[in-house]
Specification:
single chain, about 180 residues, Peptide Deformylase, 7-stranded antiparallel sheet, 7 strands, binds nickel (II) ion
């Protein structure tokens, strides 16, 4: 087990903004990186995805837990690692839930594709070409953005789309628009 520290915005924004480099060989270094990223994501049950730059490694590797519906709903599957993920088709842009482990407690609605065809290498270095749909597409798109230094706040079109989550009297998580949150 090697849990890494997740880089936070805005303190370490420059590391989050740096573009990541392609993985050339899936060697022991890359396998250790993937293992550390999986352990780090597993240590954050509130998160469903992590990109290498979030642990200050600028290699094109992401890990995701597919099968979530956003807002903590759904039953996410085991953690999947993607190396050098490259979008080859992107469609069905829609507004959906967005959040990031580098922005604890902050959420927003963003417009992202709900159909994403991606190619790359799996964690054993084998090429893949697969389609992600619905919230899985949103998640993979968010993580690939990180490899370019693009953050979810860049995709928010109105300040009114930012919110925090708060538990109400019934124990349900409800949205509190950021404009109503007392500083
Ligand atoms: Ni993120």
């Amino acid at each position: 087990m090697a849990i890494r520290k997740i880089i936070l915005f805005p303190k370490e924004e420059s590391a989050l903004r740096k573009k990541s480099q392609p993985v050339r060989v899936v060697n022991r270094y890359v396998k250790t990186l993937i293992s550390n990223m999986k352990d780090t994501l597993a240590d954050h049950p509130e998160g469903i995805g992590l990109a290498a730059p979030q642990i200050n490694v600028h290699s094109r590797v992401i890990v995701v837990r597919l099968g979530s519906k956003g807002d903590g709903e759904g039953e996410p599957s085991p953690i999947l690692a993607l190396i050098n993920p490259e979008i080859i088709e992107s469609k069905e842009p829609k507004k959906d839930f967005d959040g990031c482990l580098s922005f604890p407690g902050l959420f927003a609605d963003t417009i992202r594709p709900h159909y994403l065809r991606v190619k790359g290498l799996d964690e054993w270095g084998k090429p893949f070409d697969r389609v992600f749909e619905d919230f899985d597409a949103v998640l993979v798109h968010h993580e690939i953005d990180h490899l370019e230094g693009v953050l979810f706040i860049d995709r928010v079109t109105s300040v009114n789309d930012f919110y925090h989550l708060k538990e109400n009297e019934d124990g349900k998580m409800v949205r509190v628009p950021m404009s109503l949150v007392k500083k």
